Amino acid sequence: MNQIMKKSVLALALFGAAGAAQAVVVTNQSYTETGGIRVGQTTAAVPTPAAGVDGQLYGAKATFTHFASPTYQDASGAFHFSGREMVADGAPGPAGPGPDHTKLGVWSFAKVGTQDVWFGEWDGEATSGAVGTKTAGTHTVFYAGENGDVATTLPTAAPVSYTIKSINQYSGTLPTSTLSANFNTKVASSSGDINFTGGTISTVGTDVRLAATSVGVLSASGTGGTLDGKFFGTGASAVAGIVKFADRNKDTAFGGTKN
Questions:
Q1: Which of 146, 175, 196 is the last residue of a domain?
Q2: Element of type H or E holding 231
Q3: Which residue from 82, 124, 147, 245 puts its CA 20 to 30 A from 133's CA?
């Protein structure tokens, strides 16, 4: 197992990565419940996207790069692991030393291009039975990233297209879609796995937001969903977000880069 995975999550959350300028981290998650995932940022002087689990690891959040061990990356580029799996691979368990990783849940997430932008899903993990067995009623999707100077460097040519990938009930593949964003007319649409028309783009402070209703996700058999997302990086070079449905098991996270 990657040695970084065995270090104290608390130490990583406190010190994070150094940088020359203050980062602005934007996030969202479909549910915030007792014992569930918490997506946010480190407490370092230069915050970076981070995540933890309520009541676990001393209440700390660790960077996504901490969790993104090559040990758990598959051919699609996604990272997939569970707390019980990590302990079996050598991470601290109930007997220590260090914070117990047993109850970290089941994670599937991916990075957007080369940016510090991430999207994925989390479920609680059953304490018995097969490793990686999900706990019903806990499915949560999320995204997190540094938005950089996106609000002041939006593309002037229209429209701009993005290739985006979806995560829902991850099983080894990341279905794709093509997102079209017109930053002049503030209108967006998508075809492929995630499909919608009449989406809206708005700038609020340093955020450039993407929203849509009546969204469908083919891989999740979801219809009538609500989409929330953000654009990231110079020239809105990346996008990430989530789609929520009445049935939380169909909730989907997505992320992608400009073509």
A1: 146
A2: strand 222-232
A3: 245
Cβ atoms 212, 200 nearer than 8 A: yes
Question: Rounded distance, CA 62 to CA 52, Å?
Answer: 6
pLDDT tens, 34-51? 999 999 999 887 889 999
Return the structure tokens found at 32.
Answer: 């915030």
Domains contained in the chain, number: 2
Pairwise CA distance, residues 197 & 212, whole Å: 8
> Within this chain, do residues 13 and 60 fall inside the same structural domain, yes or no?
yes
Q: List the domain range (segments joined by +) for residue 223.
A: 150-258
- Are 139 and 188 members of one domain? no
Three-class SS of residue 72? helix
Q: Give residue-wise pLDDT tens across range 165-193.
A: 999 999 999 999 999 999 999 999 999 99
Nearest-CA neighbor of 166 among 234, 224, 116, 239?
239
φ and ψ of 83, to 5 deg: -60, -45
The CATH number that applies at residue 249 is 2.40.160.90
Whether pLDDT at 17 is above 50: no
Q: Which residue has the tokens 């569930």?
A: 36
In angstroms, the CA 14 to CA 134 distance is 30
Confidence of residue 18 (pLDDT cuts 50, 70, 90): very low
